[in-house]
Amino acid sequence: MDDGGSSILSFDLWADAQKLFSGGVNSPVRAAVKPYPFFVKSGKGPYLITEDSKTLIDYVLGYGPLILGHAHPKVIEAVREQLDKGWLYGTPSRAEVELAKLITLHVPSAEKVRFVNSGTEATMTAIRLSRGFTNRTKILKFDGNYHGAHDYVLIDAGSAATEFGVPISQGVPREVASTVAVCPYNDLECTERVLKDEDVAGVIVEPVMGNMGVIPPDIEFLKGLRELTRAYGTILIFDEVITGFRLGLGGAQSYFSVTPDLTTLGKIIGGGFPIGAVCGKRDVIDSLTPMGKVFNAGTFNANPISMTAGIATIRELEKSDTYKVTERATRILADEIDNSIKMEHVVNKVVNFFQFFLGVKEVKNANDARKADRGLYSRVHENLLKLGVFIPPSQFEALFTSLAHDDKVIEESVSKFKKVLEELT
Question: Where on the chain is N6-(pyridoxal phosphate)lysine found, per UniProt (predicted)?
């Protein structure tokens, strides 16, 4: 699979990028590919085609949004149709109503929705909402959970903290950090202690941790969070930016049968275009302006292109075998990886995303994940890339499958994973 050559290769673009961007990139994980990042010319189905005309089987998939694969024809058709009508109005459009109806139909907690432009904006808005609704200040999050790149969540924040060796980003004021409590993931005792001793507005959690590798929850942990937050009058926020519409149409809250007060969404609901959303109980969402006094606004909120791509994606999820295909692909690949690693290791998977950890016995929280052999993982990533398979360059990201990862693609992937893992482990 090749769409032609190019006179400007990744090496040349990387040289220019280092002069133009901090570290040569616009998001730090992209710099983790060694010796330098490859630049992408196009994507189709399960494949990326680089500027060097190399075809890669993609298990990053834009870090999760592309559950249908790259350039799905139904999404292309819908977006092209919308482009002919215009792409920014500054007023409401039919598409935002249609996408909100799909979200409220499928997501158990979603009675009303506010669209924003990213997962970061969604969690920022949800935290502000919880504070405004409860008239409290403190927030509780969990070590290793990543909720985007704003000040209140850049504390013990998954790969954002671990990869760069700082628990709190420089530039986050101490006054901000003092309003955020942190507990270990899957630890209800710590959670109850904080809720009992502090006036906590909201508890924000990834129902499946996806930015320290993949770490599933203890089901009793999620159920306990629901009971404790209800008992202490605290807003429970599920950050489903990754898990929303990936674990099923109802996301993690449907999969685990635990309904939060607020849910943040992103990634899949925009079909690969920039998007975020906060949804939840009617009275909480109505605290947002213009009905309430919790401010949120955005020129690009509910952008028609993102709305249209999201509608096309969800409608395809409703009628296709996507979840069956992606779960099967993940199960086969994860099991073969498990069997191919010849050392102590863990493979964590939930439905259709997974990660493997080398040199550890179990990974149930962020501290467990940090003990894994990141250097060896990086070598696996580099060797797979040479064979035409792209997995996340960071140990603390996830591998995703899509509708386009059919049996033929998985069979080819398995042989390459086996070769690399048996040689290195």
Answer: 267
Quick one: pLDDT at residue 324? 98
In DSSP terms, which residues pair with 239 in a beta bridge? 264
- Side-chain-side CA neighbours of residue 176 (13 Å): 14
Residue 263 CA to residue 205 CA, distance in Å, equals 10
Q: Can you tell me the distance from the alpha carbon of 366 to that of 167, in angstroms, rounded to the nearest whole number?
A: 12
CB 172 within 8 A of CB 204: no
> Which amino acid makes up residue 101?
K
Fold of 73-318: Aspartate Aminotransferase; domain 2 (3.40.640)
d(CA 306, CA 235): 28
Residue 54, Cβ density class (10 Å: 0-12 exposed, 13-18 middle, ≥19 buried): middle
Using left for φ > 0, alpha for ψ between -120 and 50, and beta otherwise, residue 351 falls in: left
* Whether residue 290 has a cis bond before it, omega within 30° of 0: yes
Catalytic residue numbers, as ranges? 146, 239, 267
What pLDDT is stored for residue 7 in this prediction?
64
Contact assessment for residue 294 and residue 129, using Cβ atoms and an 8 Å cutoff? yes
Neighbours of 278 (CB within 10 A): 28
Tokens of 270: 């925009």
| Rounded CA separation 371/161 (Å) | 15
User: What gap in Å lies between CA 211 and CA 395, rounded to an integer?
Assistant: 9
Q: Domain spans of the chain?
A: 73-318
Q: Rounded to a whole number, what is the distance in angstroms from the first to the last CA of the chain? A: 31
At 378, the amino acid letter reads: S
Q: Tokens in use for 191?
A: 């959670």
Mean pLDDT, the chain, rounded, equals: 94
Predicted TM-score (pTM) of the model is 0.94
* pLDDT per residue as tens digits for the range 51-101: 999 999 999 999 999 999 999 999 999 999 999 999 999 999 999 999 999
CA distances from 76 to 48, 272, 408, 419 (A): 17, 11, 24, 36
Quick one: how far is CA 101 from the chain centroid? Answer: 22
